[in-house]
Design goal:
The complex is a heterodimer of chains A (421) and B (335).
Chain A lengths: L73 H26 L13 H8 L7 E3 L5 H7 L3 H9 L8 H4 L10 H16 L5 E6 L6 H12 L4 E7 L2 E2 L2 E2 H4 L15 E5 L3 H16 L5 E6 L18 H8 L3 H11 L5 H23 L19 H22 L18
Parallel strand pairs in A: 1-2, 2-3, 3-7, 6-7
Antiparallel strand pairs in A: 4-5
Helix pairs in contact in A: 1-2, 1-3, 1-11, 1-12, 2-3, 2-9, 4-12, 6-7
Chain B lengths: L1 E4 H15 L3 E5 L15 H5 L4 E3 L4 H13 L3 E5 L10 H8 L2 H4 L9 E6 L14 H5 L5 E4 L3 H13 L4 E6 L6 E4 L14 E4 L4 E5 L3 H14 L4 E5 L2 E3 L3 H11 L2 E8 L4 H13 L8 E5 L10 H4 L3 H12 L11
Parallel strand pairs in B: 2-3, 2-4, 4-5, 5-7, 6-7, 10-11, 10-13, 13-14
Antiparallel strand pairs in B: 1-8, 6-12, 9-11
The chains are: A alpha/beta (421), B alpha/beta (335).
The structure holds thiamine diphosphate.
């Protein structure tokens, strides 16, 4: 196939919508420094995303996507439901742990459960995830332990888990960097002749970073088997998505020759379907796909953030009504599956996971002081070894001092060092 | 005189700059409605409008590159980089464009861009939120690099930086944002030009050079040492490029001993530059080799280990002991 035959699948996504932040061609060009667009758009903004489960829980028919979730019977939907309940519970638990001073910081994912669970559960174990900091539900689905989820946020480690053990890279905090890593990994898969796929998770804000654009250039040029999974949660800290993109973010990809799709990110079934389409395209040599999961960040950006400074409560309420878990519950109820027995079992599972996370978090100890010097190089350098031994001698001096009653720092020290290290 | 936090002093300086010069524009992520993640720009968009205080897309190369264009057009952009570790996407623009344009155009073009960067550790943050990248910038000809230590100096230096026709990388010691002090709104550039160091504690036995977040620690060192009968002179560099070596040299000629401290990693850091320069200038006045107390040559560690990375009172006191040849010092460190 020639590159030029790779026609991006742009048709359903480019029609301009009425939403304020979507500029149609020919619209008056805004003054370059005119004020940023107002608050994040409500749920109706932009072209209609793929949706299989309506907010009231009714199943919509979609001839294009239905076949991709034909195997998702009620039992398998219940499993997705359970995942979403568990990750929400874990998210609440971690937020509580932060409020109690156990974690330094936590980036809540409340509202994004369907986008994360639906996409992550579509992956095979041999696929590989490259994410940013908010994808804790994805990590859960990849098999990351609850303790490993909080390690970094407690400040006891620089990374939570072994990437190769779970098929998920250590998250990048540098916005957008991981999209390039995913592209490179995907190119590697293609070179190796395997049909594994790399998936990059990032936010709407990230789509402004150069790295993300370069990733799309590389992915398109090499037809890399990569899925760009953008969770458009309407906000980049205080900045609404309209400041990053004046058309739906999904519209960016076709310009690079990458087909894109908007999906209702609060609909776990639709997310599963479009992710499977994208994965299949990648596995069968069709190259990259850009998925825009349209969702909403219901909590603060992180536990340090104060969204009351910038969030419109009315728009917030509109989104709350679109809760991804309630939607599945309504559907399951309509099928007679939302029994007390089921909700009881799911709650128990969630509580157990949360208790495990709490216990694991309490058990995390600060690493030994000299571990500061570990793993800087694969083989330690003489310079670093010298610094390590000097610092070891320095620390030992306090032990001797305290043994003979002297205070640290040559009998004058005034801070807490030399205490219960 | 008003009592302000360091952060409040910076806010007041930005406000004055916006009032005084219509060509001053602020750019950065979350600096508008939110007032910046550290609230340094709090209220400025409300009072000066979104044309002057611009929330930008998430793109650091974009922010700095756009500032270059604005400067070509006669503006004086003041850029906020949200955290130290996020300046690197813009590093290319800073070192290949901003730093060189004046030289490359034979002086025809000026780049009066101020790049504000909250920097340094000590706040228990996750990775990329506690870096001290000053040496990368100080190594680049064409950039001026400064950092402040207290509210008054933050205010004065920021106004000087914005008024400066060269590009200035302005490092803000984030763990000192909440430190309070009296601030006089009048800049007296004649007594403290932007690139002048200052002696903040006079002393006679040891010169202790610090800057930014560690100036406060260095003052504590001087107090603790005084209890023990040792007189430490603390020099706050303020400007990291150029470095006011004359002030450091004059101090070392008096004391004969030099300790330099910074949070940044040691290898290739500013401590090495100062030690070498002072050794060249004051070899016959030195009673002991200069000693550096710095972060170790490792990536900034996880929060629970940062107390082992950051120079603190005791590590600096130990170095003071060492240059004085005192018993408690770690003689093993000489090797
Ligand atoms: C290069 C870089 N610049 C700035 C930041 C600071 N920062 C952290 S998260 C964030 C907003 C990201 O928004 P988005 O990409 O939409 O993802 P979300 O947090 O909403 O999931 C910013 C500006 C960063 N981490 N990296």
């Amino acid at each position: 196939m020639l590159r030029s035959e790779l026609r991006p699948d742009v048709t359903p996504h480019t029609s301009p919508a009425s939403a304020e932040h979507v500029a149609a061609p020919g619209d008056a060009v805004p003054r370059p420094t005119s004020p940023a667009p107002g608050p994040a758009p409500g749920p109706g903004a932009g072209p209609a995303p793929v949706q299989l489960l309506a907010p009231d829980g009714t199943r919509r028919t979609d001839p294009e996507h239905d076949p991709w979730v034909a195997d998702l019977d009620d039992d398998r939907l219940v499993a997705l439901y359970e995942d979403m309940v568990v990750v929400r519970r874990l998210d609440f638990e971690a937020t509580a742990l932060q409020r109690q001073g156990q974690l330094g910081l936590w980036p809540p994912l409340l509202g994004q459960e369907a986008a994360q669970v639906g996409s992550a559960r579509a992956l095979r174990p041999d696929d590989f995830v490259f994410s940013s900091y908010r994808e804790n539900a994805v990590a859960w689905c990849r098999g990351v332990s609850t303790t490993d989820l909080v390690r970094v946020w407690k400040g006891t480690a620089a990374t939570g888990w072994d990437p190769r053990a779970v098929g998920m890279a250590t998250p990048t905090i540098i916005i957008g960097a991981q999209t390039l890593h995913a592209t490179g990994y995907a190119i590697g898969c293609a070179k190796d002749g395997v049909d594994s796929v790399a998936v990059a998770y990032f936010g709407d804000g990230a789509t402004s970073e150069g790295d993300v654009h370069e990733a799309m250039v590389f992915a398109a040029s090499y037809r890399a088997p990569v899925v760009f999974f953008c969770q458009n949660n309407q906000w980049a800290i205080s900045e609404p998505v309209g400041l990053q993109a004046r058309r739906p973010v999904a519209d960016r990809a076709p310009g690079y020759g990458i087909p894109s799709v908007r999906v209702d990110g609060n609909d776990v079934l639709a997310v599963t379907a479009v992710t499977r389409v994208a994965l299949d395209r990648a596995r069968t040599g069709g190259g990259p796909t850009f998925v825009e999961a349209v969702t909403y960040r219901r909590g603060p950006h992180t536990t340090s953030d104060d969204p009351t400074r910038y969030v419109d409560p009315a728009v917030h309420e509109q989104w709350v009504a679109l809760d991804p878990i309630a939607r599945v519950e309504r559907y399951l109820a309509s099928r007679g599956r939302l029994t007390d027995e089921l909700t009881g079992a799911v709650t128990a599972r969630a509580d157990a996971a949360a208790a495990e996370m709490r216990a694991g978090c309490h058990g995390l100890e600060p690493p030994p002081p000299l571990s500061v010097f570990d793993h800087v190089y694969t083989t330690p350098t003489s310079w670093l070894e010298r610094q390590r031994s000097q610092y070891a001698a320095y620390l030992a001096m306090f032990d001797e001092d305290s043994a003979d009653g002297a205070a640290p720092g040559g009998a004058r020290g005034t801070d807490a060092r030399g205490g219960d290290r | 005189m008003t009592a302000l936090t360091l952060r409040g002093a910076l806010n007041a300086a930005l406000r004055r700059a916006l009032e005084d010069d219509p060509k001053v524009v602020l750019l950065g992520e979350d600096i508008g409605t939110l007032g910046g993640v550290f609230r340094v720009t709090d209220g400025l968009q409300r009072d000066f409008g979104a044309d002057r205080v611009m929330d930008t897309p998430l793109a650091e190369a974009g922010i700095v590159g756009t500032a270059v264009g604005l400067a070509y057009r006669g503006y004086r952009p003041v850029v906020e980089i949200q955290f130290d570790g996020f300046v690197f996407p813009a590093f290319d623009q800073l070192v290949t464009q901003v730093a060189r344009l004046h030289h490359r155009t034979g002086g025809a073009i000026r780049m009066p861009i101020t790049v504000r960067i909250p920097y340094g550790g000590g706040i228990g943050a996750v990775e990329h939120h506690s870096e001290s990248p000053e040496a990368y910038f100080a190594h680049t000809p064409g950039l001026r690099v400064v950092t402040c230590a207290d509210p008054q100096d933050a205010h004065t230096l920021l106004r000087q930086a914005i008024a400066c026709d060269d590009p200035v990388i302005f490092f803000e010691p984030k763990r000192r944002y909440w430190v309070k002090g009296e601030v006089d709104d009048v800049i007296d550039a004649s007594t403290a030009p932007m690139d002048a160091a200052r002696v903040v504690v006079p002393g006679t036995d040891v010169t202790l050079v610090a800057y930014g977040p560690l100036v406060m620690t260095a003052r504590d060192v001087a107090l603790a040492a005084a209890d023990d009968g040792i007189s430490v002179e603390v020099v706050d560099l303020r400007s990291l490029s150029p470095i006011d070596l004359a002030t450091v040299e004059a101090s070392v000629r008096r004391t004969g001993r030099l300790v330099i401290t910074h949070e940044a990693q040691q290898h290739g850091g500013l401590g090495a530059e100062i030690a070498a320069s002072i050794t060249e200038r004051c070899f016959y006045h030195l009673e002991a080799p200069p000693v550096r107390v710095t972060g170790f040559d490792v990536p900034y560690p996880a929060a629970k280990l940062e107390e082992h990375f950051l120079p603190d009172l005791d590590r600096i006191l130990d170095a003071v002991d060492r240059v004085l040849g005192r018993e408690h010092s770690l003689s093993g460190w000489r090797g």
